[in-house]
Amino acid sequence: MEQDSFFNAIRQGDLQTVKSLGDKNSKLLRSRDGRGSTPLLLAAYYNREDIVDYLLEKGVEVDDKDGAGNTALIGCCFKGYTGVAKRLIRAGADVNATNTLGSTGLIYAVTFNQLEIAKLLLGHGAQTQIRDAKGYSALDHARMQGFAQLESLLTLTS
């Protein structure tokens, strides 16, 4: 029950409840919800910057993966949450982590036309040559989606 309340507080952006429960029971900080999401991944997915900050201050593992192999950074890249991405990168997130589909944050940023996230990732060493399970690189995804700005950016950095 306490774990459900903790994850619901993250989803709702209720920092006070997250802090209260997390400070009282540190095991919650490293728990997983029914879908395999960590608190950090869920906070990143819902763009809860203050909760991301709290969890990082508490020392949660920045690159823990959910059931699909997504990290918090991968989770926020397709949504375009630049503020969260910056926090995760500052905390040491692997910008080249891959999920079970072989996709990286850069591949998702490109696929979902998130130019600012793509620039951020490239500025922190994201590799353009990584290919997903279907054999496509970020540049391939930009071309397939017809995202000319991203295609130009990736061509310049390849």
From TrEMBL:
Kindly indicate whether the keyword Repeat belongs to this entry.
Answer: yes
Xref: InterPro entries: Ank_Repeat/CDKN_Inhibitor, Ankyrin_rpt, Ankyrin_rpt-contain_sf
Q: Entry's Pfam families?
A: Ank, Ank_2
Q: Where are the ANK repeats?
A: 35-67, 68-100, 101-133
Q: Which UniProt keywords apply?
A: ANK repeat, Repeat
Q: Which Gene3D superfamilies match?
A: Ankyrin repeat-containing domain (1.25.40.20)
Question: Entry's PROSITE patterns?
Answer: ANK_REP_REGION (PS50297), ANK_REPEAT (PS50088)
Which SMART domains does UniProt cross-reference here?
ANK (SM00248)
Q: What protein does this entry describe?
A: Ankyrin repeat domain-containing protein
